[in-house]
Amino acid sequence: MPGCGKSTLGRKYAAYSGYAFADTDEIIIKEQGKSIEKIYEEVQELGFRVIEHELIKRFSNTSETVICTGGGLPCFFGNMDIMNSQGVTVFMDVSPDEIWRRVKDTNFSGRPIYQNKTPEQVQEIIFKKSIERRAFYSKANIILTDNDIKLEHLLEAIKVLGF
After folding, report:
1. Residues 6+ apart with CB under 8 A from 57
2. Domains of the chain
3. For 67-85, what is each residue's pLDDT tens digit?
């Protein structure tokens, strides 16, 4: 989910492990030469999801890289299965209330699903998407459930699960 801390934890783990870090949204912005919001505006959500899907397929021969995806990427075109076949996936199960707390005082820039919405609508979207996406996210190899997920939590899960 947008606002759960994927990018923050991903960067920390990459630094800790010495792996490269890749953020799919940042790559798409660079390659398309425009913001995620502009891409959504031009090709709508489905077009954006196709771009994400093509990008995730390109990572098939990538190793020693932490890849942070947009919150919706795992939910389209079998992307979660693709990611699971390529490496270790992590679901950061942060409560909708906590996500709302984190994003409510922002202008929601860079998060198209929240654009041009009232705060009440954004809160409703967070709760709705949390439910809708859970089936996809729950396929992850590692599920971290906490409202304050730290690098130590991820490292412990990796150790316990033998990844």
Report:
1. 82
2. 6-147 (3.40.50.300)
3. 999 889 999 999 999 999 9
